[in-house]
């Protein structure tokens, strides 16, 4: 896209208004009310705030609640699931987020790493036509466990289902990712963008994603936290803990990134949850 000349006063106004706590969507609305056309205002805001225009397109969409089932957000101070005490270390409502301490035992973390290691491949993302593709934004290696494929996986899936009060079959297969120093997962949303041409194909089974649980299987020596840049929060990657976040379609507060590992390595297991059953789960 060609860059537009932006008046310094307009640039300063956008910066000071967002710094004062107004949402980007509010800034967009104000600009349109003062006569800027919507495309032009999006492009100007994206340039000034140094963010992808696509993120602003999503902001402009009306956030929507997927019609299906929702997860229950765990309450502080925590709960006992299957005899395991899980503590809510941090709670936030926008985005809806919980840091869950003690979600996995050290043995479970190690077993997940050991079982995933021989099956790792360069991590893929889903492209706009619904196909899996290698993605430069995601430089880690990964693999998927089949739903309920072993007693270990079944235990973890049941724990997630109980804690979040959603049936096991609403989950996608558990994904394990491995990052080396310098590797990262750049800012993204886990919900699927309805404007993307592949949306219908991606959501044909299971519908929209409604929540994510990222479990940390080890503690990187430096770096590798999960950042939520819209709220200035970084969750530390700590073995056995997890971050849960839930979202509606278009919820831009759920923007998140796997920060580059600076030293050591990082292993995570991610469970994405859908609004409808995604698969037939053996129980
Ligand atoms: O690596 C992380 O901390 C985040 C991973 C993530 O965003 C995902 O698996 O969807
Ligand atoms: Fe993600």
UniProtKB/TrEMBL annotation:
Cofactor(s) essential for the protein: L-ascorbate
Pfam families recorded: 2OG-FeII_Oxy_3 (PF13640)
Annotated ranges, domain Fe2OG dioxygenase: 170-275
Domain of life assignment: Bacteria
Signal peptide stretch: none
Keyword Metal-binding: yes
InterPro entries for this protein: Oxoglu/Fe-dep_dioxygenase_dom (IPR005123), P4HA-like (IPR045054), Pro_4_hyd_alph (IPR006620), Pro_4_hyd_alph_FE2OG_OXY (IPR044862)
Key words, A-Z: Dioxygenase, Iron, Metal-binding, Oxidoreductase, Vitamin C
Region listing for Disordered, in residue ranges: 59-79
Protein name: 2OG-Fe(II) oxygenase
PANTHER family, per the entry: PROLYL 4-HYDROXYLASE ALPHA SUBUNIT, TRANSMEMBRANE PROLYL 4-HYDROXYLASE
Matches recorded under SMART domains: P4Hc
């Amino acid at each position: 896209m060609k860059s537009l000349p932006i008046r310094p006063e307009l640039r300063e106004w956008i910066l000071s208004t967002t710094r004062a706590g107004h949402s980007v969507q509010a800034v967009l609305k104000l600009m349109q009310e003062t006569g800027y056309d919507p495309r032009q205002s999006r492009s100007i805001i994206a340039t000034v705030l140094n963010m992808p225009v696509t993120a602003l397109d999503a902001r402009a969409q009306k956030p929507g609640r997927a019609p299906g089932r929702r997860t229950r957000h765990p309450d502080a101070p925590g709960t006992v699931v299957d005899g395991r005490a899980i503590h809510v270390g941090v709670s936030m409502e926008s985005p809806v987020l919980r840091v869950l301490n003690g979600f996995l035992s050290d043995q479970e973390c190690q077993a997940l790493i050991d079982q995933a290691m021989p099956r790792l491949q360069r991590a893929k993302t889903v492209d706009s036509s619904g196909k899996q593709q290698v993605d430069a934004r995601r430089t880690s290696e990964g693999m998927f466990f089949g739903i309920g494929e072993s007693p270990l996986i079944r235990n973890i899936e049941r724990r997630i289902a109980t804690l979040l009060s959603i049936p096991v079959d609403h989950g996608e297969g558990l994904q394990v990712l491995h990052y080396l120093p310098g590797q990262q997962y750049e800012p993204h949303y886990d919900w699927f963008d309805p404007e993307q041409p592949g949306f219908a194909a991606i959501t044909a089974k299971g519908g929209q994603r409604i929540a994510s649980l990222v479990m940390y299987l080890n503690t990187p020596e430096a770096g590798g936290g999960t950042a939520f840049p819209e709220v200035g929060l970084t969750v530390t990657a700590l073995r056995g803990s997890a971050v849960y976040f839930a979202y509606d379609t278009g919820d831009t507060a759920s923007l998140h990134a796997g920060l580059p590992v600076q030293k050591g390595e990082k292993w995570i297991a991610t469970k994405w949850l859908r609004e409808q059953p995604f698969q037939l789960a053996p129980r």
